[in-house]
Amino acid sequence: MEPQIQINTNILTWAIGRAGYDLPDFIIKFPKIQDWLDQTKQPTVRQLEDFSHKVHVPFGYLFLPEPPNEKPLIPFFRTGKSISSNVNLNIRDTIMLLQKRQAWLREYLADEGFEPLEFVGKFDAQSNHFDIVSDIRKTLGLSENWASTFPSWEKAKEHLAMQIEEAGIILNFNSVVENNNHRPIKVDECRGFVLVDKFAPFLFVNAADAKAAQMFTIVHELAHVWVGQSAGFDFQGMLPADDPLEKLCDRVAAEFLVPESAFLQFWKENPSIWAAAKKFKVSPIVIGRRALDLGKIDKGYFFKFYNDHVAKLKNAKDQKPKSGGGDFYLTQKQRLSTRFMAHLNQAVKENKILYRDVYKLTGLNGETFQKFISKIL
User: Fold this and answer.
1) Is the pTM for the entire model greater than 0.85?
2) For the segment 157-168, what is each residue's pLDDT rounded down to a tens digit?
3) Which of 39, 102, 168, 173 is the most buried (most CB within 10 A)?
4) Do residues 238 and 80 lie in contact, with contact meaning Cβ atoms separated by under 8 Å?
5) 3-state secondary structure 312-336
6) Residues 6+ away with beta carbon under 8 Å from 13
7) Three-state secondary structure string covering 62-80
């Protein structure tokens, strides 16, 4: 019979909460935890190993006398609040994964003689949002009404993503931790985050969010790059956190996607959220927010529209037949970024990175990595 081990119950409850579980829900999935918490029984080493895998905690942490003090990785802004230090473990692990990729890419680009990106941190929190929007458009090679020239928001988003990566910014779309579909990143907890760096800024967009709504997240993150501040955000109710920097980035995103002068002119002739969404190639929710900010609708109308639209999207998603998962390599292209993988592939060819390190950075093994390169690059 395996020996049992005395464990501090505070460590157990900390690990469960850190993984994003409510204790009653976790007890249903892992009933033996109740006995450990009541101290009527003690776990074996094997049981503790199983527990550590379920809550994604290093095994050694379970033997600490008290829960460790984990410092926030980046500021995380919550709507209606200012800065939060408490983020879901799946979000935290995703931030750490992208920080590892960013650290490698920063060093590689510097060694290869690449110059720092001049637009990173070019402005600050006191800057005028019109000036920031103008500089973003200039850098990305986009006109004021660029999105209106595309037949659909999908095409507009594809073009925007291409221009962003062409400028030297890494853009990642994912809704799970790396490739683990059992570890989802919930939209209401994280719509995205940005890791600012002079050589290799990384943008993360939650791919589970409504596709057209992702446009707002992307541009909000671009604003963070231009003011030189890393951050994460949830955009509850499509509203920013109560923070001057977040409000500035929010204004930048709104003006970039739906220019004030063009919107007011369009609204005067056709005061319809749906018509404006079609015109500007953004989510109806983004148009609703713009109409609210510019005094064309009131808060009561906006929040009713917002809640009704979100409910319709959820209902449509629930009724949509499950797909077969799509093309694995196209999914990886979104998750890893074409630009990042191009640099990685070049480094491999020049023997400046070991294959084992490539696999750790990408989550792809030898065969899938090579197939990705041949199919996507």
Assistant:
1) yes
2) 999 999 999 999
3) 173
4) no
5) HHHHHHHHCCCCCCCCHHHHHHHHH
6) 23, 37
7) HHCCCCCCCCCCCCEECEC
